[in-house]
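RECORD TYPE: inverse folding
INPUT: structure tokens
STRUCTURE:
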């Protein structure tokens, strides 16, 4: 009788583990996007390689609400140039991925969210005590030199 219960619990345990497990390998690809308001500008790139290396850069300009339109355009250009120039030196980061959300290892706050139905990443940026900023990143084959061109 004990062996019947042992087999039963082994099967139930295996089924429970199998039901919970899924492929949590992050999607491979490149994504980019921008956040541009009167006061804050962010240009972002994300790349995930086949080796699950995650490269992410999102330079920002804050408190620029008093800048002229010409200055705002120069800020965009400066961020785009800086992103392109520094991309080769970006180091891979380790993030936990549950199939939808990327978090710092052992962390709680989401860093990036994945929507597989749209092939879209959403970068979540935390700038000091400000509310979090969600930046929609669209897939790209190659990164663009001017990520603000679509605005």
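DESIGNED SEQUENCE:
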């Amino acid at each position: 009788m004990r062996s019947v219960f042992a087999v039963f619990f082994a099967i139930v345990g295996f089924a429970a583990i199998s039901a919970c497990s899924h492929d949590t390998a992050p999607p491979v690809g490149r994504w980019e996007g921008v956040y541009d308001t009167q006061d804050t500008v962010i240009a972002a790139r994300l790349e995930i390689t086949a080796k699950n290396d995650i490269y992410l850069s999102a330079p920002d300009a804050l408190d620029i609400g008093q800048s002229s339109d010409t200055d705002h355009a120069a800020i965009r250009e400066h961020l785009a140039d800086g992103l392109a120039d520094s991309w080769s030196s970006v180091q891979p980061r380790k993030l936990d991925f549950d199939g939808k959300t990327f978090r710092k290892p052992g962390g709680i706050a989401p860093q990036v969210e994945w929507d597989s139905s749209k092939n879209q990443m959403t970068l979540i940026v935390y700038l000091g005590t400000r509310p979090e900023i969600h930046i929609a990143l669209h897939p790209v084959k190659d990164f663009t030199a001017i990520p603000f061109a679509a605005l």
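NOTES: The first strand starts at residue 29 and ends at 36.
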